[in-house]
Amino acid sequence: MYRDASFKLEYPGNEFDRGLWKQFWFRHQTYHTQCLPCISSQKDAARRKETGEEPNHNWGPILLDDVSTKILTSWYNDAQQKIFGKDGKPRAKVALEVSDDDDDNLNFPWSKDRVHLNASSSTVARTWLRTARAQMQQRTDQEY
Fold first, then answer.
1. Could you read off the pLDDT of 25-71 as tens digits, one per residue?
2. In this structure, which of 14, 29, 60, 63 has its CB flanked by the most CB atoms within 10 Å?
3. Distance of alpha carbon 10 from alpha carbon 2, whole angstroms
4. CA geometry: angle at 34 spanning 32 and 35, to 5°?
């Protein structure tokens, strides 16, 4: 007999009562749906209870479902094609034009004003500039 029919036999009446239905369902349910994290935590708790060991936070490998694996694989393949091309050979590096602001054709009134920075902002700006220069120097050294 279906749950609906047995509920109507046990509680005859014209109005549906959600509270009664929930009580009926919990008394007569034959299965219980759980999310994957709940199942995993229950299995971990049972394993710890059997072995008596403390929880280990070295999670190990991450297992992906088929859809996630296919998405990541397609992203990886797209990135490989962008870098190496369809033949698998590294593409030739193309020199890019780097713009410089030495033209002094900035006609904005604020562009000629002196910038006043506090000590920490000045330190951050210097560090960024030195890092950028070092990276540019490394790139030019690697090309030749």
1. 888 877 777 888 888 888 888 888 887 776 656 677 778 888 888 99
2. 29
3. 12
4. 165
Exposed / middle / buried, residue 20 (Cβ in 10 Å: 0-12, 13-18, 19+): middle
Stated pTM of the model: 0.26
Max Cα-Cα span within the chain: 89
| Distance (Å, whole) CA 48 – CA 68 | 30
CA dist list (Å): 40 to 21, 118, 133: 30, 53, 50
In whole angstroms, what separates CA 93 from the centre of its chain? 31
Where is 31: in which H helix or E strand? none
Report the phi/psi class of residue 74: left, alpha or beta, with left for phi > 0 and alpha for psi in -120 to 50.
alpha
Any idea which residue has 């991450």 for tokens?
A: 62
Task: Name every residue whose Cβ is closer than 8 Å to that of residue 112 and which is 6 or more positions away in sequence.
Answer: 106
CA angle at residue 33 from 29 to 34, to 5 degrees? 140
